[in-house]
Amino acid sequence: MGSLSPVHWAIVIVVLLLLFGSRKLPDMARGLGQSMRILKAEGRALQDDDRRDGPAPTAGTDTAERANPAAHPATGADGPATAQRDAS
């Protein structure tokens, strides 16, 4: 009961032919195929961009600040809040 038998597929095809006509169905299938190719290409491009960019940096600090916080006096020992109080 879960899968469609060949008879069910034949009925679906006949109904589609009656609804859309034999001229529009190949055009619709061609358009669907082009859309799927574009979607796949864009998905690959996004994955390639993510691979090229590398891992995302953590919020607010870079690796040099985490390694040696004293080398960056603008952030201070306690972080940006200390630097803002000292500057005022």
UniProtKB/TrEMBL annotation:
Compartments (UniProt record): Cell membrane
Ranges annotated as biased composition (Basic and acidic residues): 43-54
Region (Disordered): 43-88
Domain of life: Bacteria
NCBIfam families membership: PRK00575.1
UniProt function note: Part of the twin-arginine translocation (Tat) system that transports large folded proteins containing a characteristic twin-arginine motif in their signal peptide across membranes. TatA could form the protein-conducting channel of the Tat system.
Name the UniProt record assigns to this protein: Sec-independent protein translocase protein TatA
Source species of the chain: Actinomycetospora atypica
Lineage: Bacteria, Bacillati, Actinomycetota, Actinomycetes, Pseudonocardiales
Gene: tatA
